[in-house]
Structures are given as C-alpha cells and as structure tokens.
Amino acid sequence: MKNRLVFFGSDEIALPGLARLLDAHAATAELVAVWSQPDRPSGRGRKVQPNAVVLWAKEKEAEQKLLEEMRPDLALVMAYGHILKKDFLAVPRLGFFNLHASLLPQLRGATPIEGALVRRLEKTGVSLQQVVPRLDAGPVVDSEEIFLSAKETRGSLREKVAAAGAPLLERVWPRLLAGETGVPQDEARVSFTRKINRDDAAVDFSADAEEIAARVRALTPWPGVTFPWQEQILKIGAAEIAEEKTAAVPGTILATGRDGVRIATGNGVLVATQLQRPGGSMLAAAAFLAGFPLPEGAVLESRPMAPLVRDGSPFPRVAGV
Prior knowledge:
Mean pLDDT: 92
CATH topology of the largest domain: Rossmann fold
Radius of gyration: 23 Å
Shape: elongated
Helix content: 25-40%
Number of strands: 14
Largest sheet: 6 strands, mixed
Structural class: alpha+beta
Oligomer: single chain
Strand content: 25-35%
Order of helices and strands: EHEHEHEHEEHEHEEEEEEHE
C-alpha cells in the first residue's frame, strides 16, 4: 500500500533526498503535493493588494483546507522558510518531519551550514526530526554525519548536505511508517544560528586569522567579507592562513604579491587570495593588484563582527524580520 506524502521545501538542497526516497520506496511512497515559497511580485507597476494581514490569514486558511483534503499520511520539510502552525502539523496521520542541516541539538535555526563553518567544526550532518511548534526542537529520529575538510566552503558543504539527505531518508522511511517519532534532544547542548544580513560582511582584523578565514568560507558569495578602502568597499573572496606571526597592528598590510595580500590580525596572518572591487569581478590577488594596488604598511579599517552562532538560547528577535 502506498502512503501519501507531501513535501515542503524551497531550496534545491532538498531534491536529492526526496528523489532517493521516492525511487527506493516506490511501492510504499506516493508524492501527492509539494509546497514551496512562491515568487512574489515587486517593483513599479505592482497592483494594489488587499490588507497584508487579511491576505496572510486567507492563504493560511486555504492551505490548511487543501492539506486536509489531501489526507496525507506523512509530511517532510527541508529549507521551507516558514514556521508551520500547530493545527497544520496535526493533519498528516504519521506527522511532520524535518531534515535539518546539522547534528541536532547543535546549530538550530536558519543557517546551520554557515554556523558549522564559522564554528570550524570537524563534523556536522543532517538530522531528521519530528516538527514541533518550537524552533528545531523536536525529537530526532536519525542523522547522517558529514566530515568537514580544512578548506570547506559554503558551496561544498551545501553539496555534502544535499547528498547526506538521500541515504538518511531511504533508511528511515520504513521506521516512519511504523510510527517512530524520535528521541528527545539534549537541551543542555543546544546552540542556535540566525538569519544572515548585509551587515555580516564586516570584518574585524583584531580577531583571530582562522576565525576570519572561516567567516570568508561561510559568507561567500553573499554577503561576503568586506572592508572599506579609499571610499570603496572591497570584498575578500578567498583567504588562507600564513605560517608566520607578527606584532603589527591588526589590519596592517604586511606584503602583497602573487600569493595574495598578507594582513596582520589579532592572532596570526591572513592571506587574502581573491579580491573584488565594486562593479568588478572576483579576481586572483595578482590580477586584482595589477589594476588596484594596495600599499604595504597601510592599516585597513576594522568593523565589529556580530556572532552567527549562540549557545544556550536563541538570538533575540529583530523587529521587522
């Protein structure tokens, strides 16, 4: 007998897992609907719309009714981008389950991939957890581990997360049909991530060189890691750590050359190997410096770096977000 499955997701990262599940369990899994975030009209010429709150309420009421009419046995979620309400979660006979890109209870929240990189973890993963009306706090059914390389980037880790969801879903599907709901998370080990914004591009050169390099890997391509220079904002596209120490003021350009721009930090030397100026392309350091030299001895401005991961309790909610 086939069980009726609905899927909620808005990111291609979820596709390998969903495809593997439907292929491996074709005899017992039938995908009857997919929910995703719609493209929303914007810009000039947009027609007058009814009150936004009224629209939202009508949409939620219609979605609730539609889901009930589908009579799903089970729902899966990954990177959907919306919190699901309690009444909605109660509709599928076997429940709602979420693929989250971390080894819960670590890195709950919106940006677990970036969080794993800035924390410089050696291991992260994908967890399948039962959805509850609290952020990524439901019981965990199973997980798939992912090991990070020393030069892991947001892009490469996204690929690993997408791949890890496939064996995990194939493995747990029979257990979900049998009614398994998971094991409660250890609340003493919880950490949280938050949404990233443009201000997170700031870099504080008084931080540890390894911390800055990890931030470059986590925030490239957007919002990137940037610093002001001569009334322009320059972006670091890739960076490494030099095997040397310095007593220079953090932000001091120690040397420039084919290998990159060597910058003093609060602990160690950062080598920016790719750079970009406004309106230009991201270039290897040698090509960038040929058209935009940076003088040795200059001190680059530092700006505060807001933390992207927090232990113990969620980040405070920001008005309007």
